């Protein structure tokens, strides 16, 4: 389903709003501009368009971008940012029926060079989003098991 850059950024924002308390000023979310692959694992599946990244940043939810290592399996990701937080990586937007779409989000905690080391935390969720008069809203959230994303139990 082709969606505009603005709609894609809005869909990413809708997913982030369900997963995190985005109004918390101590929360820092970064956007990974690499798309999740259509298959199992975390290899780069494509890139989010620069216009989508710009629109997502303009919305204020994402404080910047970061591309953590795809091969490091231990430890917390490192990103250059003001605060430690979470880096979010999304799938392409998948069409369903009518004004409904689905997107997958992979979140991982990150540290900054000056923040010290925190406990590793990673999770993936699937979101069904619906188009409403004021934008996209997450209607359903589902868990994605570690095995699906290529990690051991």
Structural topology:
Elements: H1 5-19, E1 29-31, H2 50-58, E2 62-65, E3 77-78, E4 85-90, E5 94-95, E6 100-111, E7 122-132, E8 135-143
Parallel strand pairs: 1-2, 1-4, 3-6
Antiparallel strand pairs: 4-6, 5-6, 6-7, 7-8
Helix pairs in contact: 1-2
Summarize this, please?
The chain has one domain.
Structural summary, described in words:
With 153 residues, the chain is of the alpha/beta class. The protein contains 2 helices and 8 strands; from the N terminus they run H-E-H-E-E-E-E-E-E-E. The chain has one domain. It has helices at 5-19, 50-58; strands at 29-31, 62-65, 77-78, 85-90, 94-95, 100-111, 122-132, 135-143. Strands 1, 2, 3, 4, 5, 6, 7 and 8 form an 8-stranded mixed β-sheet that branches. Helix 1 crosses helix 2. The model has no long low-confidence stretch (mean pLDDT 84).
